[in-house]
Amino acid sequence: MKSTFDNFIVQVQTISQKDNYNFFEMTAELTEYINKLPFDSFLSILSEIGTIPERIEHDSTEEKLYSKATDIVLSRSLSELGLKSKVLTERANSADVLAESIYHNYSLVGDAKAFRLSRTAKNQKDFKVKSMSDWRGDENDYAVLVSPYNQYPNTASQIYSQALAVNVCLLSWEHLYFLLSNKIKEDVNCNLSFLWNISNKIANNPELSFANRNKCFIADIEKLICEELKIPTEQFVDLMHYCIQQTINRCEVEISYWESEILKIKNYTREQAINELIKSKKINEKIRVIKKYILTLRQSNE
């Protein structure tokens, strides 16, 4: 029996293969699907959305649609937390999501991140902390980056000093899962601005010296969340045990996928192997690009 997340991936793949759809139409259908999910099913997807399945081909329409799904899941998460949220359609040099408080007169921009388990070392450019500060602009109060908990650098990184310097909130999908699992929702009496402003609070901690500003502070975030919302920190520890085991299970699934691909390749005929090698090197695409450039040059030379 397929899991909720497996069904979600099938939906992404099915929609991405609709030749009569443009990307805007694909996004609209996927948005409707995600927003209509029962709350428990949505939580199940939220808990795994940060890991891109290996069976989704790199740099494909499927991958682009999966990336858009992370925006949609982030937006719904913020809506479930009581904010008015929407996915922004502008993709060039802008944030993914805009959310506004219904009760407390603030707004935020959000950016969603997902990575493959096979992805090698990540650097500060993958997280775009400084860009998040720029995208916030003067009209929004906060900037929130959401990434898988264990994909944040676990020791020292410039993303932490950058986040402290420009007040970008570094959250994880697991943090959102924790909040929603505890039915946290902003209202007249509950103001979640403390969460979006959490990097500023950490930056103003007198115990944090300048030399330590590159140090990972992700673990401090859940402590502050639990302290503010009066939730035992043990609850977050238990949730992380569950999430880590879930990630280990996903690792096994992704390894099995690649092992099955190895067996498939070993059974290729010579012609199939040659065609796959040509495809993997994108040789035909490179030829098409060069031919298009030649055409441009000839037209400009007439």
How would you portray this structure in words?
- The chain has 302 residues and is an alpha/beta fold.
- The chain is built from 13 helices and seven strands.
- The protein has helices at 4-16, 23-35, 39-46, 61-80, 129-136, 158-166, 173-181, 193-196, 198-203, 218-229, 233-266, 270-280, 283-300, and strands at 51-52, 83-87, 97-101, 107-112, 115-116, 142-147, 168-172.
- It has a five-stranded mixed sheet, sandwiched between helices. The chain has a two-stranded parallel ribbon with strand order 1-5.
- β6 (142-147), α6 and β7 form a beta-alpha-beta unit.
- α1 packs antiparallel against α2 and α2 (23-35) packs parallel to α4 (61-80).
- The chain is globular.
- It starts with a helix and ends with a helix.
- The model has no long low-confidence stretch (mean pLDDT 90).
Determine the structural class based on helices, strands and strand pairing. alpha/beta
Which runs of at least 5 residues are low in confidence (pLDDT < 50)? none
Distance between the termini: 63 Å
Beta-strand residue percentage: 5-15%
- Supply the number of helical segments: 13
Give the overall shape, derived from the CA principal axes.
globular
Helix content: 40-55%
Can you count the beta strands?
7
User: Main β-sheet: number of strands, strand sense, barrel status?
Assistant: 5 strands, mixed
Which helices and strands appear, and what pairs or packs with what?
Elements: H1 4-16, H2 23-35, H3 39-46, E1 51-52, H4 61-80, E2 83-87, E3 97-101, E4 107-112, E5 115-116, H5 129-136, E6 142-147, H6 158-166, E7 168-172, H7 173-181, H8 193-196, H9 198-203, H10 218-229, H11 233-266, H12 270-280, H13 283-300
Parallel strand pairs: 1-5, 4-6, 6-7
Antiparallel strand pairs: 2-3, 3-4
